[in-house]
Amino acid sequence: MSELLQTPIEFLKGVGPQRAQLLQKELGIFNYGDLLHTYPYRYLDRSIYHKCKDLPYVDSYVQLVGTIDNIKEIGTARFKRLSARFSDDSGTIELIWFQGGQWIKQMLVAGLPYQAFGKAKLTNGIWAMPHPELTPIKDVFKKAGFQPFYSSTEKLNHKGLNTKGIEKLVQNLFVQHSIQAKEYLPENLIKEHQLISRTAALKQIHLPVSEIEIQQAKLRLKFEELFFLQLEMLIRKGTRVQATKGHIFEQSGELLKEFYTHHLPFELTNAQKRVIKEIRKDFLTGRHMNRLLQGDVGSGKTLVALIAMLIANGNGYQACIMAPTEILANQHFETIRELLKGVSIRIALLTGSTKKSERTPLFASLQNGEINLLIGTHALLEDPVQFNNLGFVVIDEQHRFGVAQRGKMWKKNSIPPHVLVMTATPIPRTLAMTFYGDLDVSVIDELPPGRKPISTIHRFESHRLALFGFMRKEIALGRQIYIVYPLIKESEKLDFNNLMDGFEAISRSFPIPDYQVSIVHGKMKPEAKDYEMQRFIKGETHIMVATTVIEVGVNVPNASVMIIESAERFGLAQLHQLRGRVGRGAEKSYCILMTGNELSREAKKRMGTMVATTDGFEIAEVDLQLRGPGDLMGTQQSGILELKIADLAKDGDLINSARDSAIELIEKDPNLLHEENTCLREKMISLLRERPNWGKIG
Ligand code: ADP
Ligand code: MG
Questions:
Q1: Ligand 1 pocket residue status of 448, Cβ below 6 Å
Q2: Highest mean pLDDT out of 8-12, 412-416, 494-498, 548-552
Q3: Whether the predicted pLDDT of 692 surpasses 50
């Protein structure tokens, strides 16, 4: 049977060599099986009828019953159209044909009841239906049931393969062959989740006769897709954990002890303690650690990373931390240097602007092991950076780095260093499970004590004067203020002008010598940026006007107001990151979202969400609903994970139950050797072959 599904698509009735080529190119359909697995994206219930008076929305497919009159040709000789009036007891619409009018005109019978089916269009305030499918009422019962809609492309359309054309091919496939699909899921799983068979599902997804059939088919195919994916992740994780040896850090070490007892400035939160324990445990197993640390902005990830690095150091290994921007690397360096004052350890900083004269000795002391802890940007990935014995790597704000960059770190030591990837952009649980299902995940779900909540306020341009007044008051209280402008590649020039205009306006309203205003943006030289940043950090300036370069990581506890200009242009994750720059000290903090008056529905939702909650995970959920998983995870990953039918944003419950089932199965039968899992094993082997490398994220 699987042989039938391997038959080249060319041989299907209605295809032939030309269309076959197009189907391959445009939709990746090479054989019968591919066509069978090209699912409709929606259905229309052909048993539901609309009235001319209340068509739902433009471009909706509708079905009407009525009569035709007023059949006439309109337009000029060069652009002739056929038009007819279609009426039911509620009103009328216009039917219109741009081609084939002559012929259609002869077929139409005025006064006879017809069913009209097609897309509802609105032109000049009049509802119309171009090229309707017209069936005399006495014949329509044949058409009852569900009409599937398939994605097509411009080129396929030209060859007659629009959604209807593809529907026809699928029908041919089912009419001409008896389709039997191989069952991969073990019997007990099918029973437990009340799934229909694969064969039934494939038939029902294409040719459903009821809403229930559609639901059954979707459930079955979605579950299967998600289950395979979760199983794949678990297998990869198992293989990686077993196969990759890792350094053993046996003791927590004198260094950590010294730091912990004499230099730790505050009590760790319970969440921090728990995560450190999890990392400690990994360090002891002799297997390679690949751990993702999720924690909201300000939850204290840096300290966790530092403690883990000290453990590596204490066991005689070097460690490093890589940050996505120079500002952030500098800041990590300063923070860590401050924290480690008096601790006998040698740390160093390496970024793109580290001078050549400093590099040579730095590389030498790195190679001979004198430097224990290296902090830097992706400059750390460059070839001349060679360690003596790198045992542990921390990657901060991982979403900024590509997979390839991260993979490079693996090769810096013969036994790969343990990897801790940190992200401050919370990822919804279902996504984390799927995208990082082969990593171990730790979560810091608690903020350090004593933080005052941040008030978030949404304001329109008309409030600007009041805003200035508020800023003066805050500055008088000794606080500092960020003002962030969007600077987006596509509109860079305009945005840059806005930023500069904004800076000027602020400088005028907050003049020297009473006020000091800094500016930081991506076009400045690194030294200039750093100088301005340092002035703000030291409290020498009151207001920092900036672009999103300050988005990640920057920590100035005395800054208590974050003003985001044109906030509607930022995504939720970014807004949340920006807001996380304040509320770091003991003072009450504010985030003010300035927007134009006209907001899209989505922008309103984003502003509303920001005002309503400061919980990063909650925000991530909304973000997922608004943007979809591909966008949320960044394009480099979305290509890796293309789901045919399940929706990572909407099928959360199903993802959970697929995950649970996969875990249960792998615990009982880790290598899928039980008799009932034979087919599943076969399937997984072929899946793992298709996507060979996607496990090595760290
Ligand atoms: P993030 O998780 O966003 O990287 P940071 O590591 O920058 O957060 O920490 C944010 C702030 O919280 C820093 O000023 C840090 O010193 C402080 N901090 C971290 N852990 C604690 C703690 N347990 N108690 C009090 N303050 C803490
Ligand atoms: Mg951080």
A1: yes
A2: 8-12
A3: yes
Fold of 254-444: Rossmann fold (3.40.50)
Question: Domain map of the chain by residue range?
Answer: 1-47+142-177, 63-138, 221-244+649-697, 254-444, 455-613
Q: What mean pLDDT is predicted for residues 102-116?
A: 89
The closest ligand to the CA of 296 turns out to be 1
CA pair distance 529, 506, nearest whole angstrom:
19
Establish whether residue 576 lines the binding site of ligand 1, counting it when its CB lies within 6 angstroms of any ligand atom: no
| Class (C level, CATH) for 63-138 | mainly beta
Q: Judge if 254-444 and 455-613 fold alike in CATH terms.
A: yes
DSSP state string for 246-309: -----S-HHHHHHIIIII--SPPPHHHHHHHHHHHHHHHSSB--EEEEEE-TTS-HHHHHHHHH
Coil, helix or strand for 214?
Answer: helix
Ligand 1: distance of its center to the CA of 674 in Å?
Answer: 49
Report how far ligand 1's centroid is from the alpha carbon of 408 (Å).
29
Rounded Cα distance, 642 and 621, in Å:
20
What is the rounded CA–CA span in Å between residue 12 and residue 20? 9
Ligand 2 center–CA 299 separation, angstroms: 8
Q: Is 589 in the pocket of ligand 1 (CB under 6 A)?
A: no
pLDDT in tens, 205-260: 999 988 999 999 999 999 999 999 899 888 888 877 777 788 999 998 888 999 99
pTM to 2 decimals? 0.71
> 309: Cβ below 6 Å to ligand 1?
no
Cβ within 8 Å of residue 21, ≥6 positions away: none
* Whether the CB of 272 sits within 6 Å of ligand 1: yes
Its CATH class, for the domain covering 455-613, is alpha beta
Q: Whose Cα sits closest to atom 24 in ligand 1?
A: 448
